[in-house]
Specification:
- The protein is an alpha/beta fold and about 230 residues long.
- Helix content is about 45%, strand content about 20%.
- It has one domain: Alpha-Beta Complex (Spore Coat Polysaccharide Biosynthesis Protein SpsA, Chain A).
- It has an 8-stranded mixed β-sheet with strand order 3-2-1-4-7-6-8-5, with helices on both faces.
- Helix 1 packs parallel to helix 3 and helix 10 runs antiparallel to helix 11.
- The model has no long low-confidence stretch (mean pLDDT about 90).
Length: about 230
């Protein structure tokens, strides 16, 4: 049986520092053949992205600014049987590739998607509380955010119409469509961690930033334009 191919799509916007570590964490999976393609959907400083892409054996496509647009363009440019959408400031922890491979080859895997456990790169106790809340939301409400990654078969991605070119909430919009079609069992949470930069929490406040995020989510569910929410998100 042929091993499925995995393409990783990473949107970038002047994120060279975080991107370097992100790509380094993918190197082993690239060498062992699990990851057959890495596509950087770059807006902003494409020169820095190209330099890092060359070192990592990735390729760069230039896209308009906007995470939804960038992710969609990256998926259209990729050729893998499976897609993994990953933020540039997210670092997949050791062991992720084996777990992802097992998920991809499991029975009926093509009818499901998966995300990773959320984690922050900060030792503060407040970070652990935010992690617990985010992982509870993912498990109980089937509502992970994009900084947890999203692993999905190309066929299922296409059936759902792909990611929409939204400036914000493109992740929530897509996962809601997935769950509406496949039910909550259509989304699994893997045990491997996706460690994300905590800089927004340190700057915005360990309490205020989560409250702000929750308010934006509530406004989105109430029908507020994602373009307006993107301005609030900052």
């Amino acid at each position: 049986m042929r091993r499925p191919s995995l393409a990783i799509i990473i949107p970038t916007l002047d994120t060279a520092d975080g991107l370097r570590a992100c790509l380094a964490a993918l190197a082993e999976a690239r060498r062992d053949g699990l990851v057959t393609e890495i596509v950087l959907a770059a807006a902003g400083d494409t020169a820095a992205s190209r330099a890092l892409a060359e070192q990592a054996g990735a390729r760069v496509i230039e896209t308009p600014r906007g995470r939804g647009s960038q992710l969609r363009a990256g998926a259209e440019a990729a050729s893998g049987d499976w897609l993994l959408f990953l933020h540039a400031d997210t670092l997949l922890q050791s062991g992720w590739a084996d777990e992802a491979a097992a998920f991809m080859t499991a029975g009926a895997a093509g009818a499901r998607a998966a995300c990773f456990r959320f984690a922050l790169d900060d030792p503060a106790p407040q970070a652990r509380r935010i992690e617990r809340l985010a992982n509870w939301r993912s498990r109980r409400l089937a509502l992970p955010y994009g900084d947890q990654g999203l692993l999905i078969a190309r066929g299922l991605y296409d059936q759902l119409g792909g990611l929409r070119p939204l400036p914000l909430m493109e992740d929530v919009d897509f996962v809601r469509r997935l769950v509406q079609r496949q039910g909550r069992s259509g989304l699994a949470m893997l045990e491997s961690r996706a460690v994300t930069s905590a800089v927004r929490y340190r700057r915005g406040g360990w309490l205020l930033r989560p409250l702000r995020n929750l308010s934006i989510l509530a406004l989105y569910f109430a029908g507020t334009s994602p373009r307006f929410l993107a301005r609030l998100y900052g």
